[in-house]
């Protein structure tokens, strides 16, 4: 089910990199990681990031002797490794226990309004929004909290929204052993609202439909669920 890379990993000129920024392009299905990404332990990563972030703050002209700023490099480093980018490390991937579908429930199961926080890989500023997920059981069901954890796992890494949507969908298809999965993501990008065009009102929507959800009637039923204020 994994998709192939769509762009080569070639070095680009500065103006080409700017074009990728404006086009909001992601280069591959997989989050771009080096082969040795996890050879360094988290403690050393925090130490090194803290050192380099301190240098960034000094270059910006900030006074690191100020009481308010002294601990910032360490706080940022711990936040990066232990929190907002913790989804990079496979050891943090949630285990998904499946249960027999004893009720023989054969309609779609929908979990909507899953809040997530991620970071744009182009500027390392937040992306935040809601994910809406649905599936048809192939004989097994997953605990609802595990769906939330899967969304959070893939969100907690530098991302583009299109990749995030596909990764959530593909993970659920593999776990549930079914292609009957739908994922819709609606998000605000701080790289759009807090810099660049400074548009504070726009949101970005992405969707991935597979299996039964390619049927227009079923797709419409799902979209009506997530746009309704009525509890399902």
Structure description:
By secondary structure, this protein is of the alpha+beta class. The protein is built from seven helices and seven strands. It has helices at 14-23, 42-59, 72-84, 144-155, 161-176, 190-193, 216-227; strands at residues 98-100, 109-120, 126-135, 140-142, 158-159, 181-189, 204-209. The protein has a five-stranded mixed sheet. A two-stranded antiparallel sheet has the order 1-4. Helix 2 crosses helix 3 (72-84) and helix 4 packs antiparallel against helix 5 (161-176).
Rg from alpha-carbon coordinates: 20 Å
Elements, N to C (H/E): HHHEEEEHEHEHEH
What can be said about the biggest beta sheet? 5 strands, mixed
What's the CATH H-level homologous superfamily of the largest domain? Answer: GTP cyclohydrolase I, C-terminal domain/NADPH-dependent 7-cyano-7-deazaguanine reductase, N-terminal domain
Report the strand count.
7
Percentage of residues in strands: 15-25%
Under CATH at level 1, the class of the largest domain stands as Alpha Beta
User: In the CATH classification, which architecture of the largest domain applies?
Assistant: 2-Layer Sandwich
């Amino acid at each position: 089910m994994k998709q192939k890379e769509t762009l080569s990993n070639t070095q680009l000129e500065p103006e080409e990199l700017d074009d990728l920024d404006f086009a909001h392009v992601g280069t591959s299905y997989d989050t771009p990681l080096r082969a040795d990404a996890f050879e360094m332990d988290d403690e050393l990563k925090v130490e090194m990031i803290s050192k380099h972030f301190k240098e960034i703050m000094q270059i910006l002209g900030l006074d690191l002797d100020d009481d308010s700023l002294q601990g910032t490099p360490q706080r940022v480093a711990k936040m990066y490794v232990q929190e907002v980018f913790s989804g990079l490390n496979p050891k943090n991937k949630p285990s998904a226990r499946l249960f027999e579908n004893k009720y023989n429930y054969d309609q779609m199961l929908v979990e909507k309004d899953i809040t997530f926080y991620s970071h744009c890989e182009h500027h390392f500023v937040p992306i935040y929004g809601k994910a809406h997920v649905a599936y048809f059981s192939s004989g097994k069901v997953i605990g609802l909290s595990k769906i939330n954890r899967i969304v959070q796992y893939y969100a907690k890494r530098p991302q583009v929204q299109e990749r995030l949507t596909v990764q959530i969908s593909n993970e659920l298809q593999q776990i549930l052993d079914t292609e009957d999965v739908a994922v819709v993501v609606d998000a605000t990008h701080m790289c759009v609202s807090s810099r660049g065009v400074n548009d504070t009102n726009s949101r970005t929507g992405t969707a991935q439909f597979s299996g039964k959800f390619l049927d227009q009637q079923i797709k419409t039923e799902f979209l009506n669920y997530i746009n309704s204020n009525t509890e399902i």
